[in-house]
Specification:
This protein is mainly alpha-helical and about 190 residues long. It is about 65% helix and about 10% strand. The protein is built from six helices and five strands. The protein has helices at about 10-20, 25-55, 60-70, 70-85, 90-115, 150-185; strands at about 115-120, 125-130, 135, 140-145, 145-150. Strands 1-2-5 form a three-stranded antiparallel sheet. Strands 3-4 form a two-stranded antiparallel ribbon. A hairpin with a 5-residue loop joins strand 1 (about 115-120) and strand 2. Helix 2 packs parallel to helix 4 and helix 4 runs antiparallel to helix 5 (about 90-115). It is elongated. The termini are far apart.
Length: about 190
């Protein structure tokens, strides 16, 4: 039985010493990652209010339902299922579906940056990110794609942060429409009878 070949232990003291010269770039990258995570979390939390409207409950009850489901996927699935039974208004249902799709697209980008192992060079610069994801290629498994932390990567983070901010405002703007659509579905004229 073979033994696992571990990578050499980095010279942490030398890297930390040299990293002081690159502190500005490092701080900018770490700030962008933090901004991305914060913006994404704020958007995910907005689904508490979507649940509040769909379930017709108070904020605390909606938060309990939200936090009881321990994955984003489960929370979004619940939102979509409730929308399917609560929304007769096609425009509101389509708008919510677009919001969910955009959020899911941005979640993939957030996961890319949040679930990575970052590689530093001997000068302490973040040079690459290794995605924490097993990939299969031609029947062979390999661990994580290695992606250069270049300007294109930084631009991708900036665009995602901008999109998350826009989405947050869009969800806030949509909540009154959603509330009206849920209320309208309960009216006798909406159910086809009086």
């Amino acid at each position: 039985m073979g033994t696992a070949q571990l990578p050499p232990v980095p010279d942490f003291e030398a890297i930390e010493h040299k990293a002081q010269a690159n502190v500005e770039r490092q701080t900018a990258i770490l700030t962008l990652i933090g901004n991305l995570v914060l913006s994404w979390s704020n958007n995910e939390s907005m689904f508490i209010y979507v649940l509040m409207v769909l379930l017709e409950v108070d904020e605390v009850t909606a938060a309990v339902v939200f936090t009881t489901l321990n994955t984003t996927r489960a929370r979004i699935d619940l939102v979509q299922r409730l929308a399917a039974i609560k929304l007769a208004d096609r425009a509101a249902a389509q708008k919510l579906e677009k919001i969910v799709k955009r959020f899911n697209d941005l979640t993939r980008i957030r996961n890319e940056f949040n679930h990575s192992m970052y590689a530093l060079n001997e000068a302490g610069e973040i040079t690459h990110m290794n995605l924490i994801k097993v990939q299969e290629n031609k029947g062979r498994l390999k661990f994580g794609e290695r992606i250069e932390m270049d300007q294109a990567r930084i631009d991708k983070m900036l665009a995602a942060i901008r999109d998350l901010k826009k989405l947050n405002r869009e969800i806030w703007g949509f909540l009154p429409q959603l509330r009206e659509a849920v209320a309208a579905a309960k009216r006798p004229d909406a159910r086809g009878g009086a």
